[in-house]
Batch of 2 targets.
Target 1
Amino acid sequence: MTLLKVENLNVSFRTRDGVVEPLSNISFDIDAGEILGLVGETGSGKSVTAQAIMGLLPFLDGRISTGRILFNDQDLLAISEKEYQQLRGNQISLISQNPMTSLDPVYKVGDQIVEGLKLHMTITKENARKRAVDVMTSLGIPNADKVFNQYPHQLSGGLKQRIVIAMGLCSDPRLLIADEPTTALDVTVQAQIIELFKRTTQERNIGLIMITHDLGIISHLCDKVVVMYAGNVVETGRVESVFTEPKHPYTKALLKCIPKLGMADRSLHAIPGNVPSVRTYPDGCRYHPRCPDAKAYCMENIPEIIPVKKTLVKCHQFTPQWRTAS
Amino acid sequence: MTSLVEIRQLSKFFPVTSGLMHRKTGDVKAVNEVSFEIFRGESLGVVGESGCGKSTLARLILSLIPPTSGTITFDGQDINRIGKNQLRHLRRKMQMVFQDPHSSLDPRNSIYRSLEEVFKIQKVPLSQEKINARIVELLDMVGLKPEHCRSYPHQLSGGQKQRAVIARALALTPEFIILDEPTAALDVSVQAQIILLLQQLGDQFNMTYLFISHDLALVDYFCQRIIVMYLGKIVEITPANLSQKQPRHPYTKVLMESVYVADPLKKTQTPIIKGEVPSLFNIPEGCSFENRCSFAKDICRKKSPELMEIVPGEFMACHFPLTYPEEDDA
């Protein structure tokens, strides 16, 4: 069953220098028990997508959103802030990048988990504590009873991230959004946390949106992948199809520019140029200035997202018009 | 191969004080009796997790902080025994590129001034025209345009800033550059650009690099030899191309297995290592990796293994280095 469906989501902000559009035409969906990877470089719109789903985009600055975000068939863009509060942290949880800044240094970590629980449901203090300790134990926190009474500075980075995940899972959400949850961690601890995500989504049958720039993590963890570039979805599909047979020139280039163990010397490829900023998105296809296959046609026309074999690709190359164009 | 830098029994302990009188209560052993050499023209990689002493090691080699004990010889001179002026002169030959290009450039200085400053500080006897010409040449070398001279750091992208930092490091034609996580703050597509640039400059000037990173795949690609550090000690020195050979130290094996490969067909179950890097305050007795090692035996808890050359060019600090059946047959 489809848990979350994002349809043609556009987000724009009115700023002093005119309207900027950090997200245009974003569509994807995720089922319960499924892990979706959202991958892209800085400024590709990954985090804005997460914030849009969470309803956390600022209302100031003239935010305009169009499209639909369907969560259990309820359009999140149409509901009131009060209704959103019922969902947020309850049905949908967000785990942010840096565990140091997600935890308040002056409160015990256990109390911080309980605080979220008490906000969302009527529960006694003892039951809340019991539930928090249970979730902590299920996340592999040793001596959860003792850790409950400790302060963030007394815990290691990996433990802190587990606490933040526990906060997210405590209210038994249906959808978890993890925004670069392992960037601040060491590689051996990262491996532990990734396995934890994998196990948790299966056990609890919840949907997980994993936002990362690390294609290795996506390939290892996710079922589906959405590749984003400059506020667009450029390619999406099952991980196996996208990684073994990438179609979009950007996906192809991205896969070639990560060093791998056992890579031949001097075989690393770089993508020329820089990721454009939201104020300077090029006309036509937004990837054309960096694309080796770009034609004049690509500079003038915005590509549609079309099915090519098993994936959806936003590229002119797969259209008959492009082949004949100059 | 001649060595450019020789490091012998180098240690750096930071004292821990507590109480009103700041009584010394212990040491943080950031770098603990480390010995190795860096050959001319090679790229030597240092990998390890946070707190393993990578960055302290870099600062020691450039004599930015004094060592607790041990010697560092650069080009035949002991850098902690020579005078201040000699050291300043020697520093022309050694440079460093830091992780975050944004904080390595003064936000109030244009790129031109940041580069010009190098020549002024070192009192290079060049006329202003020659310095200007050299700055344009440097910018060209790293793929920036002459007009970037007038730019301020906030006007440049992360990749462009790191290029400017590299141009500054190259200004005095150094022989040796320490790269401390030079691409950690950059996007992957830009990381590849910077890595290719550094390789090309390395070939062009026969540069010696010490490349510090937590990314084993990147170090393996960039370097000819790799030093693996754990809690202030070297656990292994090995030729690069790790996939061609089997890892010998259990920690190297764990590091290799923690690298996720972007290939869904190679989906292997990662054998998870338990625990996290212990704090430097309470390093376990005996082998420092003992409490996380799945091969640890009694002796590992009691005796710290020495770094020994097991095959020419390969050093290892482990009581029970991993062996593989194929090797026994051969």
Target 2
Amino acid sequence: MKISVASDTLRLKNLQRAIPGTVSYAALIVYGLLSVYPFLWMISSSLKSSSEVLSSQSLIPAQFRFDVIVSVWNELGFWKYFTNSMIVTAAVVLGVVVVYSLAGYGFARTSFWGRDFFFLCFLGLLLVPGVTVLIPLVQLLRALGLTGHGASQMSTYTGLVLPMINGAGPLAIFLFRNYFARMPQELHDAARVDGCTEWGIYWRIFLPLALPVIATIAIMNFIASWNTYVWPSIVINNDDWFTLPLKLKDLDLQTVIQWNVRMAGSLITTIPIIIAFLLLQRYYVRGVTSGALKG
Amino acid sequence: MAQTSLRAGQVTTPPQIQLVRKKYRRTLRDVLKANSGFLFIVPAIIIFLIFGLYTVIYSVVLSFFRWNGFGGFSILPPSCQYPACQFAGLENYQEFLYKNPTASAFFWQGLGNNLIMMVAVTVGTVVIALPLAVALNRAVRGQAFLRLVMMLPMVTAGIAIYYVWTFIYNSDGLLNAALKLAGLGVLQAQAGWLGDPSRALGALILVMIWGGVPMTVLLYLAGLQTISKDLYEAAALDGASALQKLRLIIWPLLRPVTVIVVILTINSTLQQSYEMVYLMTNGGPAGHTSVVGLQIFNYGFGDQRQLGIASAMAWLLFIGVFGLALLNLRVFRSKD
């Protein structure tokens, strides 16, 4: 008797627990669908024919046609713009990680005259809207010969990338500094006793241990610079040097928009970020949460 | 010989001074050594001086001049040649704030849209993301997978995903079709959601919330995992309902996360929204989705360039962002 009462209350308790559990799973699944649906819609639309893409609301195409994706990739020369985007993105990511891991280490682990003042200067830059300095940047690049008619692809990209690195600076410094500052002082002292220079401590000990924050900053900047449109559209004035988003905008200039072509272009543009994201998301989750919460 | 010795005599310094010099030299080296950490920030400082500080000063100075962008104006060396460039004082600011009726009406409309975006996106993101984070925190099975799926929109703040949404909002797009299917055909936007003056802004706000929720869920989830289980158990013993737990435990303890979320959202709605607006509606229909950033961009790079006005507007935007950030921190500090 007693046992059955106990199991009844247990069952009731389980039920009480199970209901909110089911509700939360339902909410998560519904929102999960909302999150991925636009992506699925993009893929499905790029597999449809020009007429089907406008008439059918089915996620599964009547006929899987890969010809649109293939022709967008080949005929419009996406490979070239893909490479251009890769060069620009890699340069930004590498620049940000190298320059600001150094600076973050300097701010967190060394002391010098005016250190806190300089740090405040960088943080202040965080609040300056990017659009504020677009005009001066363009004038500056023109004066330096890094954009305009005389500029080569190399110098155009230099002029494109350096301000992007600068724009990513404040947040990167902030995250690197927080991360380095939280590492144990014993690590620093032990290396010192063993005769390691400050540079050696940075390069051999602290930097290899900063992999999570490096991954976070790398993927943040990968996403941002891969997707950026306005700034490259101002600086790059040769079609051959376009990045993928610029080419995507130019993809179809017909009066009637061909949505399957646009969706195919969008798909090709997003796939590299999704792959990079899937590879690094574990680090990203850890880095974002720890860096932001303890800052 | 005599001359040489004389010269030698002149050069030789008394031993005491030599000692002092030696000491001084050593302290100088010490000073250099003590400050050698500065070398770590040299690359960052160089980039900052050229692309940060210089451009900021340039932009501030330019906001007091009238300039159409062709020759005439420079900071190093300072020059402003009439007629392309002209000193204007505060006129640039006055022009779009109240003097020019068309420009000022447009500016205030844009600022209003910015503020609506800011409030709606902040509230929308928090209201959606917090319950999702609570749900995700309880979900033991499949948490990693669900989290990954929900994070997907984070990777695509770009033209590709704006195209997808433009397509969905199209007059014969997915949203209208879904409404018809659900028997809500009356709610369809005949000219497409982005072409409808009363709905375009809302449609853009939805995309921003969709893009902002993942990061917010992530931040809240991390915050929730720091809350001790004992607190929930104590609340359960006292008979607290789920809503009470949310209001009395979770919300106050997650306040620091909320502050970060609010700052991030202010930043994205006031500063970064213009790129999305530019690519999705370009401010239309008839200015109903225009934002200040887009107006700055058009003054700076559009058909009729007024670079001084663009800079003046940009600095007003900066002051707004700065003020809101300070206010936010202050509210946070006083309650913490």
